[in-house]
């Protein structure tokens, strides 16, 4: 006869009845708990997305008004002529570089003294002065027109501020104070007449510039270094191409209309394809993300080129080759790197690494390295090396996990067929874990693309597209990044301003960049699994 089942403790029955009253078992409660965490994560992600778009989406409307003011105040008109002076400045820099190359040749190869070298270059200096002084009439016009255009813009912005002030007083019920606010109406047609009336003087100055440049080219001296003759011919071609742009500039001035509306797409394309990020300018603010995006990508590429071989190689060695003693020592050491604060690494980059790399670039027998020697200690290379240090633990840990997940039977079967350890690792273990290794690399990319303090301290913070004509030497140039610009400027901008919303748009671009990385990772892993299957 079966013995009676012992009665459950009273407290267990009470808890069980309580769970049954709620309609949940213990397993259901656990599912609800962890499912609730996932739901909270989704809600937080949705709130972040909504917040980013809410704060950033108004940027395009504000940027369009910013561009409209730029046109109506005549700044656009002046910039047509200003671009002519900037292109001429590029020509003068070219001439200065040509002169410096000749001077170095005379000092190093011909062993002339500095005084004798300058005497030998006297005729070239006369030519360079002619080229540089040719722009003087046009530059004088730009200076006068700039003062007029900024005065019109200031007058208009003051009037707009007065309108806002009046609306705020009316909203506060202060009707008398609102009526006392004087708003000066800006008649752009009348204000711009002195500006556009300068066109005949511009034609004369432009014609004088053309004549002086042509006269300088006709009397151009022969360079003292035969190897530089091709550069001199290139300068002549560049100058002729520059002169050929004068009619187009004149035509733009003649057909310019300050009443022409600014299309909506221009506010978008100006941000996505803009090559300038210029804020707090007395002239005009520009919000182009291209230099920031290029800077972020360049630093990330350098970091991955360093981190992937070290991270994946270390994971393969520790997981497949190293002795237990080596594993106990090396693995914690690599993982400890992730505990170092990024700001400390940034200080290390400023004080030690950047200085060390610059000193290394000055070593004579390393001048064959692209970009060596260089003078900027804070640049893409310095930031990339430090970001690689941050990415190695992530790539190492995830890659080793992927190697651990390879079934042991794969390795044993390979050895049974007579394969060596190296053949087994390279042809069996690594291919079998490739999807996990790819995921590790992509997560490492996400780690470096979102890093802030290191790039803010060590990338150089120069908002400009690097000079890719330098080849691989481009990595020795300073840049600014998307994360760096947000950290640097967000605390100083007025809330709700165009600049404020532009920074949120940069954040949105970073957000979509992260989504793109995750999507690519999933697609690569999925395709690899299909091919394996």
Chart the SSEs and their pairings.
Blueprint: H1 10-22, H2 26-56, H3 59-72, H4 75-108, H5 114-120, H6 122-133, H7 136-171, H8 175-180, H9 188-191, H10 193-196, H11 199-218, H12 229-244, H13 246-255, H14 264-272, E1 277-278, E2 286-287, H15 290-321, H16 324-336, H17 342-361, H18 380-404, H19 408-416, H20 421-432, H21 434-449, H22 453-458, H23 482-489, H24 498-532
Antiparallel strand pairs: 1-2
Summarize the structure.
74% of the residues lie in helices and 1% in strands.
How does this structure look, described?
There is one protein chain. By secondary structure, the protein is an all-alpha fold. The chain has three domains: 22-56; 70-259, no CATH class; 292-532, Orthogonal Bundle (MetI-like fold), CATH 1.10.3720. Helices cover 74% and strands 1% of the residues. The protein contains 24 helices and two strands. The chain has helices spanning 10-22, 26-56, 59-72, 75-108, 114-120, 122-133, 136-171, 175-180, 188-191, 193-196, 199-218, 229-244, 246-255, 264-272, 290-321, 324-336, 342-361, 380-404, 408-416, 421-432, 434-449, 453-458, 482-489, 498-532, and strands spanning 277-278, 286-287. Strands 1-2 form a two-stranded antiparallel ribbon. A hairpin with a 7-residue loop joins β1 and β2 (286-287). α11 (199-218) packs antiparallel against α13 and α15 packs across α21. The chain is flat and about 90 Å long. The model is unreliable at 10-14 and 16-21 (pLDDT under 50).
């Amino acid at each position: 006869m079966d013995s009676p089942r012992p009665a459950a403790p009273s407290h267990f029955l009470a808890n069980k009845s309580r769970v049954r009253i709620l309609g949940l078992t213990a397993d259901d409660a656990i599912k609800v708990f962890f499912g609730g965490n996932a739901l909270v994560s989704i809600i937080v992600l949705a709130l972040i997305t909504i917040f980013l778009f809410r704060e950033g989406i108004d940027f395009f409307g504000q940027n369009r008004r910013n561009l409209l003011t730029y046109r109506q105040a005549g700044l656009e008109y002046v910039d047509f002529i200003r671009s002519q002076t900037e292109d001429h400045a590029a020509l003068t820099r070219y001439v200065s570089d040509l002169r410096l190359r000749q001077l170095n040749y005379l000092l190093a190869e011909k062993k002339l003294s500095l005084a004798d070298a300058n005497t030998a270059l006297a005729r070239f200096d006369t030519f360079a002065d002619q080229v540089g002084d040719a722009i003087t009439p046009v530059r004088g016009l730009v200076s006068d027109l700039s003062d007029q255009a900024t005065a019109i813009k200031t007058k208009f912005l003051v009037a707009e501020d007065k309108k806002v002030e009046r609306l705020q007083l009316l909203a506060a019920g202060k009707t008398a104070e609102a009526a006392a606010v004087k708003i000066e109406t800006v008649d752009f047609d009348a204000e711009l007449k002195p500006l556009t009336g300068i066109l005949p003087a511009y034609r004369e100055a432009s014609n004088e510039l053309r004549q002086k440049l042509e006269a300088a080219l006709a009397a151009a001296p022969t360079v003292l270094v035969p190897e530089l003759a091709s550069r001199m011919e290139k300068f002549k071609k560049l100058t002729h191409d520059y002169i050929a742009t004068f009619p187009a500039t004149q035509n733009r001035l003649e057909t310019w209309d300050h009443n022409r509306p600014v299309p909506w797409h221009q506010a978008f394309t100006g941000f996505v394809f803009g090559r300038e990020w210029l804020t707090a300018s007395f002239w005009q603010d520009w919000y182009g993300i291209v230099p920031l995006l290029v800077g972020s990508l360049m630093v990330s590429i350098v970091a991955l080129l360093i981190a992937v071989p070290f991270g994946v190689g270390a994971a393969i060695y520790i997981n497949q080759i190293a002795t237990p003693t080596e594993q106990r020592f090396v693995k914690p050491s690599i993982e400890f790197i992730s505990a170092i604060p990024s700001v400390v690494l940034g200080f290390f980059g400023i004080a030690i690494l950047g200085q060390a790399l610059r000193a290394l670039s000055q070593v004579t027998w390393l001048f064959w390295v692209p970009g060596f020697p260089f003078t900027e200690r804070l640049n893409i290379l310095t930031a990339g090396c430090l970001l690689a240090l941050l990415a190695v633990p992530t790539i190492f840990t995830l890659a080793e996990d992927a190697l651990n997940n390879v079934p042991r039977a794969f390795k044993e079967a390979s050895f049974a067929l007579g394969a060596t350890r190296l053949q087994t690792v390279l042809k069996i273990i690594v291919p079998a874990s490739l999807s996990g290794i790819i995921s590790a690399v992509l997560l490492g990319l996400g780690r470096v693309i979102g890093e802030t303090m290191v790039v803010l301290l060590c990338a150089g913070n120069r908002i400009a597209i690097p000079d890719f004509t330098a080849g691989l030497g481009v990595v020795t140039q300073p840049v600014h990044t998307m994360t760096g610009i947000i950290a640097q400027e967000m605390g100083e901008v007025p809330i709700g301003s165009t600049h404020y919303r532009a920074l949120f748009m940069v954040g949105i671009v970073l957000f979509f960049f992260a989504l793109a990385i995750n999507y690519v990772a999933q697609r690569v892993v999925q395709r690899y699994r299909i091919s394996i299957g």
